[in-house]
Amino acid sequence: MAPVANPSAATAPTPLSPAELSYLHSSLSLRPPIRPDSRKPAQFRPLTAELDILPSTHGSSRIVWPDGGECIVGIKAEVEKATPNKDIRSRVEVSVEVAGARDDDPLAVFLASSVGDTLGQKLAGRLEIGERWHWKLYIDILLLTPPVSHPATLLSLAVHLGLRCTNLPRLVSAADEDPLFDDDWDAALPLYPSNAAEVGDVPAVTLLVAAVGENIFFDPTREEMAVADCVLAVSVDWDGKIVGLRTLESGTVSEGGVKRKVIKKVVEQCVPVGKEVFKSLEGIIKAGF
Amino acid sequence: MSISITRPSTPPSLAPLLRTSINNQQNQQQQEEDADGDIPMVSSAGDVSIVTPGEVVTSNPQWMRGHGTYLVEDREAGGMNIVATVAGTVQKVNKLLSVRPLKARYQPEIGDLVVGRIVEVQSKRWKVDINSAQNSALLLSSINLPGGILRKRTSTDELQIRTFFSEGDLLVAEVQSLFQDGSASLHTRSLKYGKLRNGYLIRVSSRGIQRARSQVVSLATANGGGEVEVVLGVNGYVWIAKKANTAPTEGVSITRLEEEASEAIYSSKNDFILPATRREIARIGNCIRAMVRCNLRVDEDMLNAVYEVAVEAADQGEENVDASLEGEEGRRVVEIALARKMGL
Amino acid sequence: MAMADRRRINGPTGATVPPVFLEQTLALTAPRRAPDELRKIFLKTSLTPPATGSAFLELSAPSTLKLTASVYGPRPLPPSAGFSPHARLSAELKFAPFSTAGNRRGYVRDALERDLSTQLQVALARSVKTATYPKSGIDVFVTVLDCEGSIDDYNTLGIMQALAGAITCASAAIADAGIECVDLVSAGIAAAVGEQGSLVMDPSPLDGYDVKAAALVGYMAGRDEITLLWTKGELNIEGGDFESVVDKAVEVATQIRTVLNEAVKERVLAVGGVNS
């Protein structure tokens, strides 16, 4: 895709003809709905993922969609002196680069802040080194191909996998000394221990959900988003708690907002679907080690 | 299962099956070449004549160079070499030698049936995206105006140009002529062409669509879906829609038909479409995508075969089958269809 | 000062005392509101004459939130934007350099402003009948003159309050501009605070609550529909935490809506009085 003059055009839905919009909208409003690719409402497109692909990082992952959407995450850690009264969330820095888009592209900004919100305090709490020092974690996300559909889910799964395979050097000094680390890479300790999933303390994931009428669709394509009444990015954690929710731009087929009961239905469905996603992620992580 | 995340594997490929069919063709070619007394054009890489840019295809002066090649003087042997400019397969038509690129944007040719989307409306013409390097043009004088084929274009038509086609609208057209820069000029001056509605567009690589006698395929679908029409645009845009009820019947005079159809011809409103039809339209779309993913060309026969297998698979598998035909399931369906068709 | 001896280092001419900021004490001494008590809102429209529509919003003391919204349009889209069958609504939210407590804020437009601008646009876009205005653009500009506390990513309530004020104020400005809309949008915030996660309506960062989770809604009371929902922090679904905090935020938005209605009506009455 050629770079576009209008930054938002990269994220704006392709202009669809009135006939297409009406066909999509009515297909998705049916009960049961018919998605243009016959997927079930809660079915995701198949993904392929790889862990630990970049040797120069502390943790990395790559995840690919069948339509060509591809995302690479590299995580690097640095030691930083603790500053009192500074919010601990500043220990995690997220940057997103979307291929073919400018740095200040609204999509990149949205993705970075949504990943930051999702990880929140819990991850920051893991980065302590004694009293006066802590790790500073840089999560750099590269969206290699201009996304055909909204990449929020893709990105959050890639970040999850990247963090799960992140290893930090082992501390050999005492807690109150200046930190000194074991330079044996094999002795490095995982940021998330291998039993993290059993304890239930793993990074949350963001699910993209579109609502058309009272029907709810997970992992919507761009066409489906273009006719949706509302699109929500819902971040759920292992325990089925909502850790963040945002509203995305949706189509212009209809006016008006969305009823409360639809939103309620969306978040309720996010819990079981989130469980499935975590199960799937666990599978790939287990296979990776 | 709502989500599947797998480790990367080799992309789905029908190599073993395709190899047999290619070998058959290859043997035929080989024999022809031997009869011609020509050097065998088989690259060292394998048994398929694939060349890379800069590779000498032949030095035999009997060949004329076509697309994807250029001529270089051979200093040592004297004479001229035909050298490839793209990576692709060598093709021979009579004495014309060309290299068809493995992957390239669609290049319009006169007579192609294409599906396009209006991207810009100008005063007397439209700019149409047809998935090629340049947007093509559709002149106001190249469309059927409502009210009969013989009507003259007026300034009123120019003023209400958006009532015919507006930005985003989809249409099926034929490439009428080519401009100097390779961009196409389209026309819709036939009842077969015009605005598209009652369906859904999918995009595949233009290489995935076979140029055939007829690009418009009519499928009698299963599960009460009725007739579905598939417009296989040579440019890789495929329109799948419910077949119009008012199919033109033989024997009606062409001018009368013209008048009757003109009312609906520029409508953007969909007819009533049964859920069953919508389901089958989605299935056909998945079949086409799966075929292209497996590097298979889509034509009427193949599409029918794959669709049949997909319907059977869905009937047998009930809940467990992945109806979207992404990944393994799509490959399996296409393989069965291919095997069945080749009588294996 | 001009008379000062330049060859020596002079002390200050007047005795100065290091500045003492009252921010914290102010918050502590202010009578704490009841958890279900909203702050009073001052909302007035048509205060920026050149704009098609405008509004100003201010919260009662001790809150310091002040912001203005102006709406330009519908006006023709630039030719480069291409054809659009419906109006394109763009929204921009900016913090004035002097808007934050403590340090001055530069003019650089950062990620936060972009993020809030996008959310503001999402909240408003579906309330406007954009199909009525083909080929046109409607531009909404909101300037935050003074906000509550610092503006950084970690002051969740401060940011949410600024956005909520912006939505309500911008909706008033859109109505003031006479642009057709299906309903007005008012925004409300509710938060779950403390260990028990008790609910607070319209919480301010100056209240000093220990916020566990917060929710902001953009709400069209006339249609009972939500245009924007933004939550931060952990919320249980099975226990109904999520639902109750969203419902509380909707309740806040519904109450704010009455102020919004009054402000819009006030202007119509004033102009109507002149004409008849």
TrEMBL record, chain A:
From which organism does this entry originate? Sphaerosporella brunnea
The Exoribonuclease phosphorolytic domain extends over: 209-255
**Name of the protein:** Ribosomal RNA-processing protein 42
Q: Which InterPro entries does the UniProt record give? A: ExoRNase_PH_dom2, ExoRNase_PH_dom2_sf, Exosome_comp_Rrp42_subfam, PNPase/RNase_PH_dom_sf, Ribosomal_Su5_D2-typ_SF
Which PANTHER family does this chain map to? EXOSOME COMPLEX COMPONENT RRP42, EXOSOME COMPLEX EXONUCLEASE RIBOSOMAL RNA PROCESSING PROTEIN
What are the protein's UniProt keywords? Cytoplasm, Exosome, Ribonucleoprotein, Ribosomal protein
Keyword Transmembrane helix carried by entry: no
Localisation: Cytoplasm; Nucleus, Nucleolus
GO MF, one annotated term: mRNA 3'-UTR AU-rich region binding
Q: Which GO terms describe its cellular component?
A: cytoplasmic exosome (RNase complex); nuclear exosome (RNase complex); nucleolus; ribosome
User: Belongs to which family?
Assistant: Belongs to the RNase PH family.
What the entry lists under SUPFAM superfamilies is as follows: Ribonuclease PH domain 2-like (SSF55666), Ribosomal protein S5 domain 2-like (SSF54211)
- GO biological-process terms attached to the record: exonucleolytic trimming to generate mature 3'-end of 5.8S rRNA from tricistronic rRNA transcript (SSU-rRNA, 5.8S rRNA, LSU-rRNA); nuclear mRNA surveillance; nuclear polyadenylation-dependent rRNA catabolic process; rRNA catabolic process; TRAMP-dependent tRNA surveillance pathway; U1 snRNA 3'-end processing; U4 snRNA 3'-end processing; U5 snRNA 3'-end processing
Question: What broad class describes the main subcellular location of this protein?
Answer: cytoplasm
Q: Which Pfam families match?
A: RNase_PH_C (PF03725)
From TrEMBL, chain B:
Please list the residue ranges annotated as the K Homology domain.
199-243
- Check the record and name the Pfam families matching this protein: ECR1_N, KH_6, S1_RRP4
Q: What species is given as this protein's source?
A: Sphaerosporella brunnea
GO CC, alphabetical: cytoplasmic exosome (RNase complex); nuclear exosome (RNase complex)
Q: Does the keyword Transferase apply?
A: no
* Record keyword RNA-binding present: yes
Localization terms from the record: Nucleus
UniProt keyword list:
Exosome, Nucleus, RNA-binding, rRNA processing
UniProt cross-references to CDD domains, sorted A to Z? KH-I_Rrp4_eukar, S1_Rrp4
Q: Which GO terms describe its molecular function?
A: RNA binding
Please state which protein family the record places this protein in: Belongs to the RRP4 family.
The molecule here is called: Uncharacterized protein
What domain of life does the UniProt record list for this protein's source?
Eukaryota
Domain Exosome complex component N-terminal, by residue range, is 50-93
TrEMBL record, chain C:
Q: Which UniProt keywords apply?
A: Cytoplasm, Exosome, Nucleus, RNA-binding, rRNA processing
Can the keyword Thylakoid be found in this entry's annotation? no
**What is a GO molecular function of this protein?**
RNA binding
Question: Exoribonuclease phosphorolytic domain spans which residues?
Answer: 37-180
Could you state one GO cellular component term attached to this entry?
A: nucleolus
What GO terms describe the biological role, i.e. biological process, of this protein? Answer: nuclear mRNA surveillance; poly(A)-dependent snoRNA 3'-end processing; rRNA catabolic process; rRNA processing; U4 snRNA 3'-end processing
Q: Which InterPro entries match?
A: ExoRNase_PH_dom1 (IPR001247), ExoRNase_PH_dom2_sf (IPR036345), PNPase/RNase_PH_dom_sf (IPR027408), Ribosomal_Su5_D2-typ_SF (IPR020568), RNase_PH (IPR050080)
**UniProt-annotated location(s):** Cytoplasm; Nucleus
Which family does the record assign?
Answer: Belongs to the RNase PH family.
Query: What's the protein called, per UniProt?
Result: 3' exoribonuclease family, domain 1-domain-containing protein
Q: List the source organism.
A: Sphaerosporella brunnea
Q: Tell me the lineage of the source organism.
A: Eukaryota, Fungi, Dikarya, Ascomycota, Pezizomycotina
